[in-house]
Amino acid sequence: MGKDSLSVASITSDLGTHFVGQRVIYYPSLTSTMEVARREARHGTAEGTVIIADEQTAGKGRLERIWLSPKGNIALSIILYPSVTYLPSFIMLASLAVVRSIEAVTGLKSQIKWPNDVLISGRKVCGILIESDVQGNTVNHTVIGIGINVNLRVADFPEIQQVATSLSDELGKDVSRLSMIRHLLVEIERLSLALSTGGSIYEEWRDNLVTLGKRVRVKSGGTIYEGVAESVARDGSLLLHGLDGSLTKIITGDVTLRD
Ligand code: BTN
């Protein structure tokens, strides 16, 4: 096995979690971990099951975008069956778990661009996609998809070079994917247990947002809003102070920082 190759045993052994990562399904190559996760969830797989791929051939981003997912990166999806009350918190939970894990493994400080992109020095190092199957007030399942640029030479990928970075580019040396994955799974479980025992992760998420106080352009549905990102609410929405003095609450969207 190569130095940074992954296996189910190396990810799961002595992980110390109760449910996240207790079952791992690993693929050297896959279209998208989201697809397999959705299928597994429909079959009622154990809560916390993780689908991991070394490379994805049809990685899926937010807003129907393509997610570049070559070897050397982390691409995983985690299956959960939460109560509907916790759904807004998963956006916060996933990005915070990534921020905490990056710092623990590499010492690098990262920040969150609302709602859940993770940036280092203003460039995207991680994208998060959360898909839920909800009927009325019942969540059939939620899949948290996390893609992290780990050992990627961004200069080799002109299409993302201006906007993206990787942990190895930032650090100047390769980073253990195994260590990142294990930290991430532990943090996700820790934060979801905190939620279910009444804790809040809103404050820590808010305090890690790079967006607040900045001039932004937000694309939400077919509409583009411009203004200053004033604050975020406990449900994860963004309050935008428009240039005309208006206040708009935005549930989800794509932010460009203007400053
Ligand atoms: C985004 O920033 O647009 C979200 C990117 C999410 C990428 C991850 S990689 C693992 C999982 N599988 C996918 O196909 N997408 C998510």
Topology:
Layout: H1 8-12, E1 24-30, H2 33-42, E2 50-56, E3 74-80, H3 87-106, E4 111-113, E5 117-120, E6 123-135, E7 138-148, H4 167-171, H5 177-196, H6 202-207, E8 215-220, E9 223-232, E10 238-242, E11 247-250, E12 254-257
Parallel strand pairs: 1-2
Antiparallel strand pairs: 2-3, 3-7, 4-5, 5-6, 6-7, 8-9, 8-12, 9-10, 10-11
Helix pairs in contact: 3-5
The structure holds biotin.
Biotin binds at residues 32-34, 56, 59-62, 65, 67, 69, 75-77, 117, 127-129, 145-147.
Q: Can you describe what's shown?
A:
This protein is α+β, with helices and mostly antiparallel strands and about 260 residues long. About 25% of the residues lie in helices and about 30% in strands. The chain contains six helices and twelve strands. The chain has helices spanning about 10, 35-40, 85-105, 165-170, 175-195, 200-205; strands at about 25-30, 50-55, 75-80, 110-115, 115-120, 125-135, 140-150, 215-220, 225-230, 240, 245-250, 255. The strands form two sheets. Strands 1-2-3-7-6-5-4 form a seven-stranded mixed sheet, sandwiched between helices. Strands 11-10-9-8-12 form a five-stranded antiparallel sheet, with no helix packed on it. A hairpin with a 2-residue loop joins strand 8 and strand 9. The protein starts with 7 loop residues before the first helix and ends with a strand. Biotin binds near residues 34 and 147.
Keywords:
seven-stranded mixed sheet, alpha+beta, binds biotin, about 260 residues, globular
